[in-house]
Structure formats: structure tokens, C-alpha cells
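Customer escalation, tier 2.

The customer says the design service returned an amino acid string that "doesn't look like it belongs to this structure." They asked us to rerun it and document both sides in this ticket. The original C-alpha cells are below, unchanged.
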């Protein structure tokens, strides 16, 4: 279910915001067999006016955004690089590790884009890397 309200940037205090969107969705905890679905409401701000897209198009845009995140960067950071399993206690240490994960993901994507690697997963690519193979990538 999607609900939308037209606003002005001055009304809401967000530069370029022309509508606020509320999306009701159900969430199911797959780790708990027999768990009941829970309702969640996500709020979004958009630079699109109400007339530019209908409810179905806005829903598709939001689903596409989250699908790209979950299937792209988040999956790589969590599953391949073990971000959620990391128990670093200090904020500065966690920030450094997050930066290193982003750097790793970015280098892999650049190598794929430039067709300098034939491996199809970040994990395989990471397993092939050594200091001597990564140093030239950082100095280009």
C-alpha cells in the first residue's frame, strides 16, 4: 500500500522535495518458523511531483532501489565480506573496516568494468589477490 502527500521544499525543509511517500509492507522473520508477519511503514522523500508518477510507478521505483541494494552491495558486504558477523567494538575500527570493504568492492567493480578479471564473484576475486596484485590498482 502506498500513500503520497504533495509538499513544497519550504514546507518540509528538504531542498527539492515535492512529495512524501509512505509504504506499508509486511515483514516475515525467516529465522523463526511459524512467525507471524509484521507490518512496517517506510517513509520516503521524492523530488518527483505527484503528477509525474502514479502509485504503481512509485512502488516499482522503491522496490527497484531496495532490490539493487540487497542484491548488490549489501549482499557482497554481508555475505562475501562478513560485515554482519564482524564484532568490532570501537566505532573508529568499524568505520575503517567499512571503508576497506567499500574499497574492495569498488576495486573489484572497476576491474570487471575494465574487463581485467574473468572471475564472476567478489569472493573468488579476493582469494586471488595479494599485496603485489593490489598495489598497482591503488596507484593508477
Amino acid at each position: 500500500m502506498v500513500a503520497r502527500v504533495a509538499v513544497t521544499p519550504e514546507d518540509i525543509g528538504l531542498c527539492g522535495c515535492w512529495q512524501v511517500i509512505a509504504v506499508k509492507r509486511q515483514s516475515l522473520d525467516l529465522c523463526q518458523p511459524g512467525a507471524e508477519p509484521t507490518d512496517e511503514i517506510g517513509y520516503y522523500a521524492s523530488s518527483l511531483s505527484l503528477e509525474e508518477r502514479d502509485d504503481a510507478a512509485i512502488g516499482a521505483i522503491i522496490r527497484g532501489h531496495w532490490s539493487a541494494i540487497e542484491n548488490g552491495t549489501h549482499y557482497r558486504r554481508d555475505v562475501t565480506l562478513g560485515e554482519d558477523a564482524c564484532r568490532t567494538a570501537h566505532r573508529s575500527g568499524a568505520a575503517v573496516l567499512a571503508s576497506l570493504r567499500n574499497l574492495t568492492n569498488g576495486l573489484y567493480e572497476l576491474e570487471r568494468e575494465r574487463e581485467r578479471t574473468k572471475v564472476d564473484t567478489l569472493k573468488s576475486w579476493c582469494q586471488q589477490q595479494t599485496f603485489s596484485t593490489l598495489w598497482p590498482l591503488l596507484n593508477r
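Tier 2 assessment: The sequence is consistent with the input. The chain has a mean pLDDT of 89. The two ends are 48 Å apart (CA to CA). Sent an explanation to the customer and offered a walkthrough call.
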